[in-house]
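In response to reviewer comment 3 from the previous cycle, which asked for concrete evidence that the modeling workflow produces usable outputs, we include below a single protein chain processed end to end. The sequence was submitted unchanged, and the resulting structure tokens are shown without manual editing.
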Amino acid sequence: MDASIYSKTALIIIDPFNDFLSEGGKLYSVTKETVEGISLVQNLKKLIEGARERKIQVIYAPHHHTTKEDYLNWKFLAPAHQGSKNIVLFEKNSWGAEFHPELQPQPGDLIAQNHWTGSGFANTDLDFLLRAHNIDHIIIAGMRANTCIDSTARYGVELGYHVTLIKDGIAAFNWEEIRVTVEITFPNYGHAMLTTEEFINSPQS
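The workflow returned the following structure tokens.
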């Protein structure tokens, strides 16, 4: 990665919640295999630390903190939210809706408004934050590969950003979801793909 563009680059970390990433999280039974298999928490930690060292803006793009009533009267409920009527994911004021303890924001990081469905851009201030900081390159990592990651990356391209995916900085409910995102969908619209180590080994200045 070219160090000359760092000042115009942001690392966007999507949904690093305990419900996804921590033992005891409501979705950990289905994410555990890929989260642990790809060393997601460790890779995200390396990415965040590497971004801060390079003066790349770190932005968190979290999902809405839900309550039991949130999706009851939606006219067209997304399939990913069907279970929310019974199991409240990322529940407001819960441990599950907190960021993983090793992935906590620090002073200087930004937190975008919470998104309700897949895209970190839709109905949030993420685009505003990026433009306010003169950023036109975004690097995307986090959860979940074929939903929020894919949706945010696509939306970013539509808005005119240069979009890079960290291919071992994402996890999902199974390996096939990751494979399809990395091998089929993202290459059709994204601009670049890196591993965590490729990012870490890029020049610091």
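The chain has seven helices and six strands. We consider this sufficient to address the reviewer's concern, and the full set will be provided in the supplementary archive.
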